[in-house]
Each structure stands twice: as structure tokens, then as C-alpha cells.
Protein 1
Amino acid sequence: MWNSEREVEAALKGTGYLATRSIAQTVFLASRLQKPILAEGPAGVGKTALALALAEMTGRRLIRLQCYEGLDEARALYEWDYHKQLLRLQFDEGKQWGEVEGNIFGEEFLLARPLLESIRSPEPVVLLVDEVDRIEMETEALLLEVLDSFQVTIPELGTITAQSTPLVVLTSNNTRELSEALKRRCLYLHIDYPTPQREHEILAARVPGLPEQLGASIAAVVASIRDLPLRKAPSVSETIDWARSLIALGLDEVGGDDAGSTMNVLLKYREDLDTVERELKL
Ligand SMILES: Nc1ncnc2c1ncn2[C@@H]1O[C@H](COP(=O)(O)OP(=O)(O)OP(=O)(O)O)[C@@H](O)[C@H]1O
Ligand SMILES: [Mg+2]
């Protein structure tokens, strides 16, 4: 697909996603080794955005499995379409079970959920398994077969193998340890907060009309805010929101009372607002 990590970097940039060297290299290796990427890091640093950018730059469809506590096989992999099966049974009334069974456990009675859908898709897709740390450890097992051999086994039907290898991105906020089994199947990618210079570039890519000097100051202030002991450091998405807010209010510098009063766009805890006010005197 790509011949070097530089090509990956350029393609990502074309979608407005600015990759560090380690991001570009991991994507390149993932495509070469046909392995899933496990992107981990704090909130709002571009983990989910990476999968969206991959879909955009390859022109592939994005299939997303949003993880949550209690996610089960029926929502992640597949379930049988009981209503359709019942209708079929009514048609088959009077027939032997052996015959009926073959009729109702065919692919047409299967409701494919994201994992199976990504395997069955005739065109290659990007599969995003978002916030995988939210599912219980036991549920991770559902992912393993898909992640290491791009296949799904359905007891009544047999094994369905991918027609084309999906590009797979899993994201995690590291709210709990993931299993060794899951980690072993993936290329691990740690994404951290960007440097001020990189964050300025991200702002330039994401916030049209942002004056150069304002962008640089925003990135510098956000970097110093992240150095403070906060309950929740501002994420890149919050930096973007802050830049948009300053523009919307017609402000062109980050100092002064007006800008200080917009800190609630960056910070989401009362204590953090107090800390920043005390330490930075904006
Ligand atoms: N490297 C980057 N290049 C361009 N935009 C970025 C980059 N990193 C983050 N962003 C921007 O920040 C926003 C937030 O990123 P994203 O939603 O991917 O965060 P996340 O890491 O998935 O966070 P969470 O853990 O809260 O889901 C994106 O919409 C994107 O616009
Ligand atoms: Mg996300």
C-alpha cells in the first residue's frame, strides 16, 4: 500500500492528520505485517482520529465497534435473526428437523455486527475498535480470533475468513490493563500530547482562519497548563475548541481578562480553573 513511513506521513497529512514519526512508522508496519494497531494514550490526543484519517486516505469504509461495559457477542460479532428464522419455520411446518435446521442457520439469517461485517466485506475496510479498555477482560476473548487471523467461527456455519485484510485500529485510554493475549496480537502505539510546535501545526490544519501568532501563543499556553498539577489536562480537541472560541469572540491574544474567562473551554474542573488562574495569572 505504501513504500515507506514517509509516504504514510504524507498521506495522513493530506487528511489533516499530523503524525509523529512513531505514528507513521507504526501505521506503515501495520500495513506491512498485517497487524492491528493498539493506540493508547490520554484523552483527545488523536487516537480515534487516526482511524478516521486512515479510512479517508485509503478511501476505505470505516466500520466502528464502540466498546462499552456489557458489550457482548450479539453486539460485537453477530446474532441470529430470530424473527426471520421464525417466519421460515412457519413455512417449513411439517418438515423433519434435520431439513429445517439447515434452512434456518444459513448466512441469510445472520445479522452481522461490526467485527463480522469487517470480515465479510468484499472491499477492504478500516475497522476501528474504539475504547477497548471499557469492555470486561472476558469479552476481549471475542476479539482475539478476528485480530490474529481475520476470521470468525460460527458454530452452526463454520469459519468465515476475511476476503481482504482490514486495517485495524484499537484505541484505549488505559483505564485498565489489557490482557497479554490481546496485546500480543497488536502493534503497540503510545500517543502522547503533541509538542507545542506540533500542536500549533494541528491548530493550523484544523482551525481555518487562525492567525499564525495566536496559534503559536495558544499552543505555548496550553503546554504550560499541561505542566501544572491538574485533575484533567486539556486535550488537543480542547485546544482546538479554545482556538475556535477566541476567534468567535474576536480576540487575537491569549492574555487579558477576556481570554482568561474562556478557560472553561480548556478545563473541566473547578479546582483546575483555580490552579491555572493562580499559577498563570492569565
Ligand atoms: N495529530 C493530529 N493531527 C490532527 N488533528 C489531531 C491530531 N491529534 C488530535 N487531533 C484532533 O483532536 C481531536 C480529538 O482527537 P480524538 O477524538 O482522536 O481523540 P482520542 O485520542 O480518540 O480521545 P478519547 O480517548 O477521548 O477518545 C480530533 O478530532 C482531531 O481533530
Ligand atoms: Mg477516541
Protein 2
Amino acid sequence: MKRTDLVVVGGGIVGTVAALSVAEAGGSVRVLDSGENAGSDANAGSLHVQLQSRFIRLFPEKAPNVEASLPLYLRAVALWDNLEARFGPFQMVRNGGLMLAETTEQLRFLETKAAREAQHGLNVEILDRSGLESLAPFLGQHILGAELCRDEGKLNPLHANARLKAAAQQAGVVFTRATVRAVRKSGAGLQVQTLDGAECSAEQVILANGWGAGALTRGMNLHVPVEAEALHMNITEAGDTKIDHLIQHAERSITLKQFQTGQIVIGGGWPAKGRGLRVPEVLPESLLGNVALAGRLVPSLAGLRVLRTWAGVNTTADGRSILGRLPDCPGVIVAVPGDAGYTLGPLVGQAAARISAGHDASEDFPGCTPLRFAS
Ligand SMILES: Cc1cc2nc3c(=O)[nH]c(=O)nc-3n(C[C@H](O)[C@H](O)[C@H](O)COP(=O)(O)OP(=O)(O)OC[C@H]3O[C@@H](n4cnc5c(N)ncnc54)[C@H](O)[C@@H]3O)c2cc1C
């Protein structure tokens, strides 16, 4: 392989947008992607902004980091608006998101959450049942109220991925299927070695390989503690009910949205069975539990057939993005988006591109430096 200004490891949403940004600025970029388990190919297309109850419940120790990152989510959805205008359509809609409460306790939880989120600049409001009637008359009668976050939205990630990749290729980015085994310092630059024995040299490397970033940083005196999390998804046939919003629940794991085709995408973090580098296995209990919950919240969905289920690999860390140069190997830039990583992906990808051009992103991404993992 030839010498390149920049090698991006990982061709998910972060790597693709990073590469596109550098190429548009005139840099030569090569993306190396192993083609395995990209969260960007498996995700639900929810543009998240409000704190997800699932995250607070499952990872309470990480919730403060996500809360501190809320302003990033606002910037991330504004960037998605911009990308949709330049490279879309991605079937993107930003009508807001509703987080539902079935009990007064859940409603109180949402009130407290909304008050905290408003302090970070989110456009949030608590709706009682009568307030919900005009926005979402299809909800089950037992739904007492909801938090409406007007900043949220949804898109079709398959459209967004394809269009952004095409734009990057048009700007000159070369995508190659290869698994990177190691990145090493070599003179003033870096040597990138792939599993098939090939090597290429680059001035800089962006590690945008999500769950795979930990293995590549291990030899660089700073281990980035990313973990793979296998998650379940479903999509139904088209339904008659018109659902404008992204729907979530105050206590249960669910995201539910409608694509332009009328199909309902149901997910929200039900587990799948991880199988290392192989695609995760769908668990019947996740399929049944996830769609049963959807049918309880939106009764008209109960008659729809599930056309497809799948499982994909999410990347988790400590709740914040991981973004910045490695101290012992400053040519290497880590770019891992954090919770709701598809939403944050373009923002983190663009920032990684700016860092590669010599800018300092630490003010725009407070607390996100990989230095926090230096022991
Ligand atoms: C089922 C599911 C639903 C989700 N739903 C949402 C949602 O609705 N909204 C949201 O905001 N987020 C969602 N997420 C999270 C989101 O998809 C991810 O956080 C995001 O896509 C991560 O993007 P990325 O570019 O950092 O990494 P990825 O998209 O995971 O891409 C990383 C790429 O790096 C490659 N790679 C890894 N190691 C190497 C190596 N050594 N050499 C070469 N290539 C390598 C992988 O093969 C992969 O292609 C969901 C995740 C899952 C699994």
C-alpha cells in the first residue's frame, strides 16, 4: 500500500465522516475497515438527545458523564441537519421524541430529568394525557403522560451511510477492506500493519474503529477501555398508524419509530448474544419481549408482522466520547463517539478531522480526552 497523509481505521459513521472532512479539505485519505459488526450498519436510526432511561438504569455510574455531554448531542443533531441538507435525503425527520410514563412515579422521574436537561439547553416539556392526545393519539390508554424533547429525531441509517460513503469516495477517499493488526511509530510517521501482512505508512492515523479501538491502543501506553455490547433490533411490515416521533419509555428499554415506508423499527437495547467477531445471535426472549412491549405502548402495532430481526454490536465506554491524540504516539487520534454513538458520530468524526489538521478540540469536547485513561 502506498503512503497516505491519513489512514482512518474503521469505516462506520465516525470514520466515514472524518475521512470525508479531511478529503474535502484536500488531504489524501485511506479508510481500512474489516467489515465486521459495524454498529453504524446495525443501528436503529434514532437521533437521541434527552437522557435515555435505559442508560441511567443499567449504567448509573456512567450517567453523570452522559449528562455532562448533553450539549454535544444538541450540536450533533444540528450537524445532522446540515449533512442531510448537503448529502441527503436520509429520510430524516426532527419532530422530537416522546418518553412515555405509565405510572405517576415514572412521570415524576421524567419531571426531574427534564428539569436537569433544560439546564443544559434542551427543549423539553412534560405532557399530561390530554397534551399527548393531539401528538400521539395512537398510544395505549394507560399512558399517563410523557416527556417531549423537541430536539430529537430519526433517520434511515442505511440511506445515510450509503450517501455519506458515496460523498467521501467522490471527494477521493479510498475504502479498503482490511483488518488492522497494529499501528506503530516509524521515523517521523506511522506504520499500519494489516492482518494479511500488508503495510502502509501514514503521517497520521484516526482510530475510528469503535469496539476495536482498545486492542489497537494497547501497545501505545494508554489503553482505551471500550467494550462491545450485542443488541437486538426488529422491523415490521408497514402499518396504518402514523407515528411522527421517536418513542421511548421512562423505565423500560425501547425505541420505536416509523420509517417513510410506514414500517416500524423497534429496538432500544434488548440484549443479543455476542459471538466475538461473528455477527451476534438473536435471542428469542429479546424478540418477544421487545415487540410485546411495543404492542402494549402502541396497541395498533400488535397486528403487524415482524419482517426481520437482527443483532448488532454497540460500543460502550464510560459514557463520554473519547477524542484526542495519544500522548506517547501523537500521530494517532482516537475517535470513539460514546453513548448513542450514531447520533454523535458525525460530530466526533468532523472533530477528529479538525484535530488531524492541527486544531485543539478539547474546549469543544470537555472531558473527552483519552488522557483520562492514563494510569
Ligand atoms: C442494534 C444497535 C442499535 C443502535 N441504535 C442506535 C440509535 O438508534 N441511535 C444512536 O445514536 N446510536 C445507536 N447505536 C449505537 C451506534 O450504532 C454506534 O455507537 C455507532 O454506530 C458507532 O459508530 P463508529 O463509527 O464509532 O463505529 P462502528 O460503526 O461500530 O464502526 C467501527 C468499524 O471499525 C471496524 N473495525 C474494528 N476493528 C478494526 C480493525 N482492527 N481494523 C479495521 N477495521 C476495524 C469494524 O469492522 C467496523 O466496521 C446502536 C447500536 C446497535 C448495535
